[in-house]
Amino acid sequence: xxxxxxxxxxxxxxxxxxxxxxxxxxxxxxxxxxxxxxxxxxxxxxxxxxxxxxxxxxxxxxxxxxxxxxxxxxxxxxxxxxxxxxxxxxxxxxxxxxxxxxxxxxxxxxxxxxxxxxxxxxxxxxxxxxxxxxxxxxxxxxxxxxxxxxxxxxxxxxxxxxxxxxxxxxxxxxxxxxxxxxxxxxxxxxxxxxxxxxxxxxxxxxxxxxxxxxxxxxxxxxxxxxxxxxxxxxxxxxxxxxxxxxxxxxxxxxxxxxxxxxxxxxxxxxxxxxxxxxxxxxxxxxxxxxxxxxxxxxxxxxxxxxxxxxxxxxxxxxxxxxxxxxxxxxxxxxxxxxxxxxxxxxxxxxxxxxxxxxxxxxxxxxxxxxxxxxxxxxxxxxxxxxxxxxxxxx
Length: 394
Description:
The chain is α/β, with parallel strands linked by helices. It is 20% helix and 22% strand.
């Protein structure tokens, strides 16, 4: 097992709030990082090509059987969680996700969209920014790296993604030296870009490296095309990458390189993703892209806990952006967004449909007891490739 059961008490939850993180990293180092984001060589794979991991090798067989009998699988997905400056937003999101285990739909795992650790992916930050916040999260946690996970402190000779590999790409389930007193085993992903096989969905995870806008080497893009070509046709196909192809925020915006990399691979393979998940931008945005008669949701879910949210662009008169909003340069439609609260997505896949529900959580100054608020949902029919609900909640 990758997550060992530990008794949870009300007081232990309360102690998680307002604790100072034992980090010596300050904002001036963040600015250094932003100006120093260079392509970094990738670590050697831990597993064998083509870098697949089956959920049946992680979860108990009775849980896999239960998922198969139910005819669907649900899981959490969000990125940009590291609580380097203010831990409270990350803790509120973590506690909200934990509460889902008390509902009828119990998540099978948490899929992290990158930037687990700020600002440089250092091993000394893994306890305070990963293991401690998810101490009571009762399911395995998978991840793709983000730019901050691969970035390096200037002058540091530590290989890029060294700590990420130790904590997510372990040769076997074992307690990492970075875990402190947390009982969670390191994950056993075969590579920093890899494919997760689940009963109802294939999840291809890419690593877009450190530079702003992302960057890939030919080895990874060739692997990606091969994964698309060989993915089962009767299962949902999910592609995840940290940097977004589309974003209407004020800080980053979308990446043409990500858009082109995905499009080129889809074209070469003759296979499209059913949905694309990204992070990097610290808010929630859902786009619909029309390609060859199919509707593909492109999701930005990067409000998982990093303290600073990214606001959306305004309309010419200064008022909030109204949805649906068509991006004239791409034709892609922004369906819904949330830029003033942290949150997470609960995603479900079956043989017929995939669906997502996005939940916003309380602000740090509000009561953390408040239930998460559902602010968006969608359903995609895998037969017709059409969104049967194509707009946000009122």
